[in-house]
Structure formats: C-alpha cells, structure tokens
Design a protein that fits this description.
The complex is a heterodimer of chains A (about 400) and B (about 130).
Chain A: H1 15-28, E1 33-36, H2 39-46, E2 55-59, E3 65-69, H3 70-79, E4 87-90, H4 98-109, E5 115-119, H5 134-143, E6 147-151, H6 154-159, H7 165-189, H8 199-212, E7 226-229, E8 251-260, E9 263-273, H9 278-297, H10 304-318, E10 329-331, E11 364-373, E12 378-388, E13 393-395, E14 403-406
Parallel strand pairs in A: 1-5, 3-4, 5-6, 9-14
Antiparallel strand pairs in A: 1-2, 2-3, 7-8, 8-9, 10-11, 11-12, 12-13
Helix pairs in contact in A: 7-8, 9-10
Chain B: E1 4-5, H1 9-22, E2 33-40, E3 48-55, E4 58-66, E5 74-79, H2 80-87, H3 93-98, E6 102-105, H4 108-125, E7 130-131
Parallel strand pairs in B: 1-7, 2-5
Antiparallel strand pairs in B: 2-3, 3-4, 5-6
The chains are: A alpha/beta (about 400), B alpha/beta (about 130).
C-alpha cells in the first residue's frame, strides 16, 4: 500500500530521511531501540492519522514497526507508506496485548535483549500527548529487564523541528482551507445572517465549508472550531462553541481548525457586530496593531522571550498592556504536536517554551495572541501558522488582518 | 478407519492428505503463510509442535514432532489439553486467545485476517478420527 507520497508531489515528505535523522540521533546516544508512544511521533513517521493508542518501535538500523489497536490496523495500513509487516496490531489476547507483542518483537524479531531503549515521558498541557504511562513503563521495563530505559523524546522533537518543504506546503494548504472556512463564516453572519444564529451553528457552517475544501478534521482537542461571542470573547484562549445566540453590539471570534495531510490549519478572525461602541473600536484597533507588530517582528534569530518583551513595550505605549495575555505563540507540527516551542529538554521550566529559544529558518509556530477585557465584555484572538524566514515570517493564512464591523 | 493418535506420524500423514485434498488454493485465497502450534505438557510430558505452511494457497508443509519446530510466520503456544479441546470443539479459539489459554506470536493484524483460513484448516483436522 502507498499513501501517494512521492517526490513529485508538492506535499511529499521524506519519511526515509526522517527515520535516518532519528536513527542518527539514536546512534549518537547509544540507543539500540526507540519505543515511541506520542501522537506527534506517529504522525511524523507513519504519515497517517493514528488516533488510537499506538507504539512505534524504531531499531537503530532498519525500518520502524507500528503497533496499533487492532480495530484500526487495516485502515492505517491503507493510508501509510509502511507495509503489512511493519503495521501490526495489539489485542487483548494471549501474547497479543500491547506489552507482550512489543516485548516479543524487540526480544525475538529484532533480537535486542540488552542495551538502551529510548522512550517518551514528560508532561504537557496537551491531554492527548501520549507519554508512556507509569503502568506501561512498569510493564515494559519488567518485560525487557536487560534494557535500560532512557527518556529520549527530544530525539523526535529535534528531528521534526525544522519543517521540510512538503510539510510547509501541507500547512499552506491547511491554511487556505481555513481561509475558505472564514469566507463561509463571514457570508453566513453578514447582512443580518447572524440573527438567531448560535456559536455551534456557525462552527458547523465553517466546518462544512472546510470539509468541502479538503479538510479531514477540525481536530477535536480544544473543542473543534472555537467560536465565542459577546462576553465569552474575553474569557481566554479556549472557547469551544456553545448554544449562545449572537446579539447586536457584540464582538465575535471565530477560531477555525482544519487538517490536511496531518498539517493543522488554525486561524482566528474577529468581528464587531454593529453597532459597535468607541470603546470596542479602541480595543479592536489595539489588538490589530499588536498582532501586526508581532507578525513583523518574527524572523530567524528572534526568541520567544524577546518577542514578548517587545510586544509588552509596544502595548504599554498604546496603553493596552493590561489586556494582552502573556504569550505570542505556541508550537505547531503535524497532528499531535501543538504545544511548546523548541525541542530541548534542558530548558528553565521543563516542558515549557524556552524563552531563549532562537528561531531558525523553516521552523513553524502558531502566532497566537489573546486580548481580554472582561470588564468591557470583549476579547479577541489571533492565530495563524507561520513559517520563520531569514528576515521575517510567512503568514500561511491569508485572511486579511482586520476587525471589521458587520451588520 | 481406526482412530489415530493425535499428533502421531500417522495422524500427521492423514492430516496432510486431507488438507491437501480439501483446501484448494481457491478455497485458501492463494494464501502464503505458515503457522506452528506448540503443544505444551503433552500426555507423555513432551512438548510437541504442528507446523503448517501454505504457498500460493497450496499446502507446502505439514509436519508434527518434538524438538525445534520449523520457523513460521505465526506461533501459537498452549497446553496440549487446550488444543485438544479446540479440536474437539469444546473450546472456541477466540475465547482461548482472549482468556490467555493461547499465546499468539506474530502480526496480530495479519493473524486476524487469516483467521477464516485457520478455521477451514481446523474443520478439516476435526474430521480425522482421533484419540487424544
């Protein structure tokens, strides 16, 4: 089976190179076998959507082998570049459960009985990260007693940090799709279309438009498309839609999500429903100016700490620093990689973004900003996947930065 | 026909003849795979095996014995009595597997797809008059 990933395709990703890069890092650390369990690791190597608890065993040389829940093995096999011998299933049966099947594979098929095993543990804000659980660790280490378990998730994080052209093109396409969602959302609410409409209904309209444009998912972690209106726009950076109806004079925030070949579209756009007040317009103009300032500040060599400091000064000058939530970005990669920036383990606060991380060309982050003035029942959000360039950045969503008043 | 002793050379030869005659390549969907059953705690205390191999749907290997079995794509390990119960239809293979009475070694995803073919094999073996 093939997933149609070939060199002439603009969305081609070189999975062989990815594996070689990982194995090179494994060899540098004397790791004989890597046992990945995070969703982001599956996305990066399998190049297919792997939603169920899965494990990938990567020897220091040779091809990786996936172990997934039996109900999904055939479907993954139909979508990945990996062949039948390397897409395996686990099941609650003698010798076939997660622990025994992988232990036997490493022991008997790979013949690795002694040495060092890299695995993935840590913490995240992202519930579905997929770290090896304590129980799994106990069981695997008991089943493979002569292997030394080494936390080595940064091997995959390092290998996936700089995005290749095919991956960037996938993000560009995902963002184009999100832009179509925004077009549909705007068309639905303008000319009084918003009357009687709920946040959930708008989320569905945008989802349909994006699905028609090629998205396969609104990625469910944060509640699919995140829509907020009125006082809910000032609540912070997570607003799964509710059945609240839009009302005249309210701000609207549409944060739309798409997925294309595991690349995540994530763009937020804001409106004011007429009639807007002077105070609302002031907040809106502040936010647009702050986003524009940050977008113009990204470039290779910039750091998260530097960007947030510069933004703080900029917002202070405008008198709106009280409303800017701390942060201008979050990390992004293929499905499952949606939290911290960078890859290193040696950071001031483990598993959080290193403020001194130095951006390099072709890294990607979500330019993410949140403005909240709950006392005025207003807030805004901006998200846009960006590609770091030598002298700037590419905003992959092309939806114009503005906060328009619509009626 | 007199009963044959389970896993004996005579039983093995009869099994080979019946399987070859009844399981055509078409019936086996041109399957290429192999399986070894490991019988632990046989009545005489030994560990025995049954090896079956199909190539392009044709039976190309069938043997029983003790000692080191031929290498196979799948290995199924269980007590002799468990296999005997399955052969006598007193115990379902799936139940045996999910209650850890059987241990499967090999690609589970592929094994599940091949399960109907294994059922066909077991049905043929069950027709042999056998003393367990």
């Amino acid at each position: 089976m093939t997933n149609g990933n070939n060199g002439s395709d603009p969305y081609f990703v070189d999975t062989d190179k990815r594996i070689r890069d990982i194995q090179k890092l494994m060899q540098e650390r004397d790791i004989d076998v890597y046992l990945g369990s995070r969703i982001r690791t599956m996305s990066f190597i399998v190049d297919a959507f792997v939603p169920w608890r899965s494990y990938i065993v990567i020897p220091a040389e040779g091809l990786p082998t996936l172990f997934t829940f039996v109900i999904d093995a055939a479907r993954i096999l139909s979508e990945t570049w990996m062949d039948e011998d390397h897409v395996r299933a686990y099941f609650g049966a003698g010798g076939a459960d997660q622990i025994e099947s992988i232990q036997y594979f490493i022991d008997e098929e790979l013949g690795i009985r002694k040495g060092r095993l890299g695995y993935e543990t840590g913490m995240a804000t992202y519930t579905a990260e997929g770290w090896m659980t304590h129980y799994e660790y106990e069981q695997f280490s008991a089943a493979l007693p002569d292997l030394e378990f080494i936390n080595a998730h940064d091997i995959v994080d390092l290998a996936s940090l700089i995005k290749d052209e095919g991956t960037i093109n996938r993000f560009r396409k995902a963002s184009r799709i999100v832009d179509e969602g925004h077009e549909a959302a705007r068309a639905a609410v303008e000319n009084a279309g918003w009357k009687g409409m709920t946040e959930t209904e708008l989320a569905g309209i945008a989802a349909l438009a994006m699905r028609k444009a090629g998205s396969v998912s609104e990625w469910n972690f944060a509640g699919l498309n995140e829509i907020s209106s009125g006082w809910r726009t000032g609540l912070g950076a997570c607003t799964p839609p509710t059945t609240k109806e839009f009302q005249a004079g309210e701000p609207l925030m549409f944060d739309l999500h798409a997925m294309f070949k595991l690349a995540l579209g994530d763009h937020s756009h804001n409106y004011l429903l007429a009639p807007s007040t002077e105070r609302q317009r002031w907040h809106a103009d502040n936010f647009v100016a702050c986003v524009d300032f940050v977008a113009r500040s990204y470039r290779a060599g910039a750091t998260p700490g530097g960007l947030i400091t510069d933004l703080g000064n900029f917002a202070e000058d405008r008198g709106c620093s009280d409303f800017i939530l701390p942060g201008v970005e979050h990390g992004i990669g293929l499905f499952g990689d949606e939290w911290r920036v960078g890859a290193g383990m040696d950071v001031p606060i483990p598993y959080w973004t290193d403020p001194d991380h130095v951006y390099r060309e072709n890294e990607m982050v979500i330019l993410a900003m949140q403005y909240a003035a709950p006392e005025d029942d207003i807030g805004f959000r901006y998200e846009n996947p960006i590609v770091i360039e030598k002298g700037g950045c590419e905003l992959t969503s092309k939806y114009p930065l503005a906060i328009e008043e619509i009626s | 026909m007199a009963n044959l002793k389970y896993l004996s050379p005579e039983w093995s030869e009869e099994a080979r003849i019946r399987v070859k005659a009844e399981l055509t390549p078409e019936k086996m969907h041109n399957l290429s795979s192999s399986m070894t059953n490991i019988y632990q705690n046989c009545p005489d205390g030994r560990t025995m095996y049954m090896f079956v191999e199909f190539t392009g749907g044709e039976l190309t290997g069938f043997e029983t014995g003790d000692g080191e079995p031929p290498r196979a794509e799948f290995k199924i390990i269980a007590e002799y009595e468990t296999f005997a119960k399955i052969t006598r239809a007193e115990l379902g293979a799936v139940k045996a597997l999910t209650s850890r009475k059987l241990t499967l070694r090999g690609n589970m995803a592929k094994a599940l797809r091949l399960a109907p073919q294994v059922d066909k094999l077991n049905k043929v073996l069950a027709t042999i008059p056998t003393d367990f």
